[in-house]
């Protein structure tokens, strides 16, 4: 009896192994809902979209964009909180995510190995497309009495994390106004921390580079009267002459309860993607983003358009994204 049972078990094992072998060969290449590269064999069953802090515009838009991508590509996609531009470029280089929001100036630095990327060049990431202007805002409260950049001397000012896009913007704007980080007491805070610290009187001002209206500044304005320090026209010209990726920008009257419009400058916001994401998947991702952009509830949604998707991009465009733009803009 035992011999018969052992023999039966042996036969069953042989049959199972044979079926498994057949399944491996027969099922190879079948679509199981994941998108991948037929040549490399790499499949994408999950995509991460790196955004920024929870009080910034990247995060506000990221969740909706991740939903568009998942719905239209069938690949599960999640928006992740991050330290924003510079950290996002490094994370994509290190393979920790596939897609990220980034400032156009920071993407350029990474590609060229300049500024904060001097010893850490990122050449494995390409553009999906540009999104909207990111306004450089020097935010304070009216009660501080700070009205000009020169008033920042000796003050506690949030400048973002070292190596961040906000930090670079702060450094360059200070420079144009004859100041440096040595002339202020720099505080390395994110947008949410800047809001809380301004509200508590722990800092005097904060550089915030984000699409307007920015959640952190709106939150601050709900409890105290906000003032955004203007960048005068001549200083904006000087800045743009030296750093080509800046543009003049105006914060409309009524934003943050301010009675008058405020002149300042901006850089671009864009989306980037790992180079090794297959062309067909990158095409579908790009199409999902730009075709669905009109559905975005955030004020910046109306600025995300296929016809301006290649404006201001200083790095190579992913072939899949380029295919999409070639189709819609022909």
Spatial separation of the terminal alpha carbons: 77 Å
H/E topology pattern: HEEEHEHEHEEHEHEHEHEEHH
The main β sheet shows up as:
10 strands, mixed
Unreliable parts: 16-33, 37-41
The secondary-structure class comes to: alpha/beta
Label the overall shape. globular
What is the average per-residue confidence, as pLDDT, rounded to a whole number?
A: 88
Radius of gyration: 25 Å
Number of E-state strands = 12
Number of helices: 10
The proportion of residues forming helix, as a percent range, comes to 25-40%
Strand content: 15-25%
Overview of this protein structure:
It is a single chain. This protein is of the alpha/beta class. Helices cover 38% and strands 21% of the residues. Strands 3, 4, 5, 6, 7, 8, 9, 10, 11 and 12 form a ten-stranded mixed sheet that branches. A two-stranded antiparallel ribbon has the order 1-2. Strand 1 and strand 2 (43-44) form a beta hairpin. Helix 2 (57-73) crosses helix 9 (279-292), helix 6 (191-200) packs parallel to helix 7 (215-221) and helix 9 crosses helix 10 (319-328). The longest helix has 26 residues, at 2-27. The protein is globular and about 55 Å long.
């Amino acid at each position: 009896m035992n011999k018969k049972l052992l023999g039966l078990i042996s036969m069953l094992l042989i049959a199972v192994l044979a079926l498994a072998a057949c399944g491996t060969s027969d099922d190879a290449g079948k679509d199981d809902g994941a998108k991948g590269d037929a040549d490399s064999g790499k499949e994408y069953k999950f995509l991460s979209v790196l955004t920024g802090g929870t009080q910034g515009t990247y995060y506000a838009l990221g969740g909706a964009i991740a939903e568009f991508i998942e719905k239209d590509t069938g690949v599960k996609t999640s928006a992740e909180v991050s330290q924003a531009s510079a950290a996002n470029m490094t994370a994509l280089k290190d393979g920790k995510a596939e897609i990220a929001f980034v400032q156009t100036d920071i993407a350029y630095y990474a590609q060229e190995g300049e500024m904060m990327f001097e010893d850490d060049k990122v050449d494995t990431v390409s553009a999906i497309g540009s999104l909207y202007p990111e306004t450089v805002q020097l935010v304070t409260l009216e009660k501080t009495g700070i009205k000009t950049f020169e008033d920042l001397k000796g003050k506690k000012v949030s400048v973002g994390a070292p190596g961040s896009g906000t930090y670079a913007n702060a450094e360059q704007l200070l420079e144009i106004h004859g100041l440096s980080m040595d002339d202020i007491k720099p505080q390395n805070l994110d947008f949410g921390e800047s809001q809380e610290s301004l509200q508590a009187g722990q800092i005097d001002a904060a550089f915030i580079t984000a699409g307007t209206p920015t959640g952190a500044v709106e939150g601050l304005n709900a409890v105290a009267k906000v003032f955004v320090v203007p960048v005068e026209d001549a200083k904006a010209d000087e800045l743009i002459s030296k750093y080509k990726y800046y543009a003049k920008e105006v914060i409309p009257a009524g934003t943050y309860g301010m009675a008058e419009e405020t002149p300042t400058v901006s850089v671009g916001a864009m989306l980037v993607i790992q180079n090794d994401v297959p062309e067909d998947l990158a095409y579908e991702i790009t199409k999902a983003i730009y075709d669905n952009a009109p559905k975005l509830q955030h004020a910046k949604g109306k600025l995300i358009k296929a016809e301006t998707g290649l404006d201001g991009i200083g790095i190579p465009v992913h072939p899949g994204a380029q295919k999409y733009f070639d189709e819609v803009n022909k």
